[in-house]
């Protein structure tokens, strides 16, 4: 307990798994927490100063599941192992914490999502830049980037976090009070005080020393101060938790944002690009539609493509070329995909090898993956898409094939892994262990012949082990080299050198086999680890091959076409379909629609009722753009896609409870981000801007935003609105055009045809949508009655205003033919008598003789009459 307390003192913030024999034990508060969170039985042991010590424990060989559950609940777990052999140690065995496990540093892949990376992310904000980095220690991926610090940098950080989906985020405790609430929505947040050691020079020296390089230029990090600090912070954190254990990180990959389409947090969520970590499953997302990859590595790479569409025409065309090859070669594609199905997660196997938590099954899986890779190579017959290091891979395969059995136990401490013939000493031990009786008989027969004692027998007991028993009558025949072990009344017991050696081997054979196999296994692992660069290259090539063959498969299955990619900026989609919705409703039920946006017409004002398909249409265009920029084929009859640098969306209405922003405030914040960040090459979706305030305010704001985008930004935009007044902008804004959702209306019902046609809508059909939603008939009838009254009032007011304006300004009053007044108008006309009085008083007022105070009093009088 003294040893435990000393180690716990250094791990106050961690649940300490303290190794005692075959168990990890937890004491005191750790035991209470573990029993509560893991459902363990809470017991107690020796009383200490009259107080019972709470105790809970788990078997060490099944600890991974328990650790995974604790980490998922936000706890850190410190693993304290016995670092000495208990059999060879007198007194208390030495124990040390060998690693600390947090959400971003889990090394047991059994409890991780195989189709997602397990990222630890670091963020450093400087005066002018933001450094971002993320690492997955199960695959060895280590990526750094740097962005300019702009006014909307919070949006940029949140967008990157949503793309990366880290399990854990590190931040500088002195810099992030304004981001803390937002960051906690995404991952476990840990504050680090980096000021003590993360100065630029020290960070740079630390990274150079770790990677054994003279300069960080080879990683593209020259003068990237923020990225360097973030990378150093994350790497130092990981190494500290690993307590000196090696990690599978060989390089830093610097990635800029120059060739990546910007998809901010709102856009990713609005378009349902990938599933969120907080949502179970991917149903209803673009990832769900596009991911039929055969390997977990392929699924992870596809997810990366989804979150980071390329804006490089060369990269897009290269992917298209590879997809087309397999799109046309159906039999070849299916043959390759069949082999890919049997490829294991090589990336994570390499990670386990380096981290030292591999087992024999991992090596068998690696061998099978290499064999299938070689067969894929033969199928593709030297196609440059899959050039691999043949000789080295064959060498790895042969090493595993010659040494590791096909059927192996899970634990590498139990033996049963190494093949016969691989090691002579091990073969001898197995022979002794398996053929002990034969060896005893062999020695026994030999000694009978040598001594002439026919009754000589070899026996065994637990006290003396193996011995030769000779009766008193034959003692005179016993050779001089026999060593007396025990005297009995009628016999003597002896031992000879061969029997002594055999006894030692047999009694210790099992332990020796297990120890020797473990030693040999680690030797084999170390040899394979030396090939990790080649294996990483193989893993990526297999991942990429999986993605492009998958895209070809999806294109065939869903009738997608190859889009034309251009830098001219045009967007032309003929017969486009929403890739997600068409799968949910059935392609035969989905109505295709087209769009053309170019430098002459770059803004569409889209009108139509709710539930008619405006949002589906707009999202459809955005998703097709994302797919095209991935290199993927798209759901359309024809598509010409200009390179788009950013996609922005403003869709839907909801309060942000975390930041305390109302629906309208959130809407305006998002629109502000869009107009401040978009460029001429961006694509913007705006849905119902301005509806969170009064009608006149909303129309005014929506009009101003539309004009600003048209005149200043000139980004390609679709603006969906209920405000029919905005359709008048078509005549004012030369690059805008009105489109509407076609509606078929008769006396009985209204049918939404889902078809986009030229022209603006003049009705909202809100009551019809309310009917479809299931509101009671009495509510619908009352709503229709109120709508008639309000529309009549609007008509009368418009007519009155025209008439009174002429009278007010002293012009000739033309004869206005009054239309018959309906009953529902009578109450309205009575209310207008007061308005007539006000107008008369206003005409009689001599404004040029009034003082400001008189004017104010007259205005107050008129207001009182109206009220």
Topology, please?
Elements: H1 2-9, E1 15-20, E2 23-27, H2 28-38, E3 43-48, E4 51-59, H3 63-72, E5 77-82, E6 95-101, E7 120-125, E8 129-136, E9 141-148, H4 153-164, E10 168-172, H5 180-184, E11 188-192, H6 200-211, H7 225-242, E12 253-254, E13 262-263, H8 265-270, H9 286-290, H10 296-307, H11 313-328, H12 330-340, H13 346-355, H14 360-380, H15 390-403, H16 424-434, H17 436-451, E14 457-461, E15 465-471, E16 483-487, E17 491-495, H18 497-529, H19 532-558, E18 564-566, E19 571-576, H20 581-585, E20 593-597, E21 603-607, H21 614-630, E22 638-642, E23 646-650, H22 663-677, E24 683-687, H23 695-713, E25 716-721, H24 729-732, E26 736-745, E27 750-758, H25 766-773, H26 777-808, H27 826-844, H28 852-866
Parallel strand pairs: 1-5, 7-10, 9-12, 10-11, 13-23, 18-22, 21-25, 21-26, 23-24, 24-25
Antiparallel strand pairs: 1-2, 2-4, 3-4, 5-6, 7-8, 8-9, 14-15, 15-17, 16-17, 19-20, 19-22, 26-27
Helix pairs in contact: 6-7, 10-19, 11-19, 12-14, 12-19, 14-15, 16-18, 17-18
């Amino acid at each position: 307990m003294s040893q435990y307390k000393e180690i716990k003192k250094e791990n106050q913030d961690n649940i300490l798994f303290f190794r005692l024999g075959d168990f990890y034990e937890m004491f005191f508060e750790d035991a209470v927490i573990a029993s509560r969170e893991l459902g363990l039985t809470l017991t107690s042991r020796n009383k200490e100063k009259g107080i019972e010590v709470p105790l809970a424990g788990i078997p060490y060989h099944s600890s991974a599941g328990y650790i995974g559950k604790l980490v998922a609940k936000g706890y850190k777990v410190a693993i304290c192992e016995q670092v000495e052999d208990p059999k060879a140690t007198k007194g208390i065995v030495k124990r040390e914490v060998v690693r600390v496990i947090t959400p971003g540093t889990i090394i047991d892949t059994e409890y991780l999502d195989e189709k997602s990376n397990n990222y630890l992310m670091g963020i450093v904000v400087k005066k002018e830049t933001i450094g971002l980095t993320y690492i997955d220690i199960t695959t060895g991926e280590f990526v750094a980037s740097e962005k300019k610090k702009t006014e909307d940098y919070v949006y940029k950080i949140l967008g990157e976090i949503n793309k990366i989906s880290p399990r854990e985020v590190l931040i500088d405790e002195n810099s992030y009070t304004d981001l803390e609430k937002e960051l906690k929505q995404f991952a476990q947040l840990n504050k680090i005080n980096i000021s003590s050691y993360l100065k630029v020079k020290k960070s740079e020296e630390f990274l150079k020393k770790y990677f054994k390089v003279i300069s960080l230029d080879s990683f593209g990090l020259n003068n990237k101060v923020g990225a360097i600090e973030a990378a150093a912070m994350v790497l130092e954190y990981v190494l500290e938790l690993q307590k000196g254990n090696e990690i599978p990180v060989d390089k830093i990959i610097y990635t800029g944002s120059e060739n990546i389409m910007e998809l901010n947090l709102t856009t990713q969520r609005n378009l349902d690009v990938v599933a969120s970590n907080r949502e179970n499953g991917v149903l209803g997302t673009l990832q769900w539609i596009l991911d039929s990859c055969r390997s977990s590595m392929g699924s992870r790479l596809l997810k990366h493509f989804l979150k980071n569409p390329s804006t490089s025409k060369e990269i897009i065309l290269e992917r298209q070329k590879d997809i087309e090859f397999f799109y046309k070669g159906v039999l070849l594609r299916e043959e390759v995909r069949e082999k890919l199905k049997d490829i294991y997660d090589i990336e994570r196997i390499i990670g386990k090898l380096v981290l030292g938590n591999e087992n024999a099954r991992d090596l068998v899986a690696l061998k099978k993956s290499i064999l299938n890779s070689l067969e894929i190579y033969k199928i593709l017959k030297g196609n440059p898409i899959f050039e691999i290091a043949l000789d080295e891979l064959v060498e790895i395969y042969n090493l595993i094939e010659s040494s590791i059995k096909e059927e192996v136990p899970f634990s590498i401490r139990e033996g049963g892994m190494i093949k016969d013939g691989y090691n002579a000493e091990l073969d001898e031990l197995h022979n002794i262990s398996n053929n002990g009786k034969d060896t005893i008989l062999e020695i026994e027969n030999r000694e009978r012949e040598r001594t002439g004692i026919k009754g000589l027998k070899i026996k065994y007991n637990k006290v003396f082990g193996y011995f030769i028993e000779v009766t008193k009558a034959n003692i005179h025949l016993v050779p001089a080299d026999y060593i007396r072990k025990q005297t009995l009344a009628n016999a003597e017991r002896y031992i000879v050198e061969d029997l002594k050696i055999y006894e030692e081997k047999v009694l210790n054979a099992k332990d020796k086999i297990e120890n020797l196999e473990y030693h040999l296994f680690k030797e084999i692992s170390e040899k394979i680890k030396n090939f990790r660069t080649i294996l990483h290259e193989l893993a990526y090539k297999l991942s990429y091959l999986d993605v492009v063959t998958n895209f070809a498969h999806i294109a065939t299955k869903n009738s997608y076409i190859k889009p034309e990619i251009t830098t001219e900026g045009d967007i032309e989609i003929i017969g486009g379909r929403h890739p997600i919705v068409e799968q949910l409703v059935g392609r035969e039920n989905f109505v295709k629609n087209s769009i053309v946006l170019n430098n002459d017409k770059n803004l569409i004002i889209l009108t139509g009722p709710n539930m008619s398909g405006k949002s589906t249409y707009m999202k459809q265009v955005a998703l097709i753009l994302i797919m095209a920029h991935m290199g993927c084929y798209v759901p359309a009859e024809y598509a010409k896609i200009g390179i788009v640098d950013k996609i922005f969306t403003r869709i839907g209405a909801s309060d942000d409870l975390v930041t305390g922003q109302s629906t309208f405030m959130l809407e305006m914040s998002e629109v502000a981000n869009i107009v401040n960040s978009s460029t001429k090459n961006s694509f913007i979706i705006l849905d119902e801007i301005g509806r969170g305030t009064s009608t006149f305010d909303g129309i005014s704001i929506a009009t101003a935003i539309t004009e600003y985008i048209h005149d200043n930004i000139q980004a390609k935009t679709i603006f969906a609105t209920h405000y029919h007044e905005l359709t008048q902008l078509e005549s004012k804004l030369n690059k805008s055009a009105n489109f509407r959702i076609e509606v078929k209306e008769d006396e009985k019902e209204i049918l939404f045809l889902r078809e986009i046609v030229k022209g603006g809508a003049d009705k909202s059909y809100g009551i019809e949508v309310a009917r479809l939603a299931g509101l009671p008939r009495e509510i619908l009838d009352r709503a229709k009655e109120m709508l008639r009254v309000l529309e009549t009032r609007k008509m009368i007011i418009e007519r009155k205003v025209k008439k009174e304006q002429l009278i007010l300004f002293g012009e000739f009053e033309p004869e206005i033919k009054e239309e018959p007044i309906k009953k529902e108008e009578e109450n309205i006309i009575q209310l207008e008598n007061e308005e007539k009085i006000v107008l008369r008083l206003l005409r009689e007022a001599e404004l040029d003789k009034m003082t400001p105070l008189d004017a104010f009093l007259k205005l107050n009088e008129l207001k009182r009459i109206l009220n």
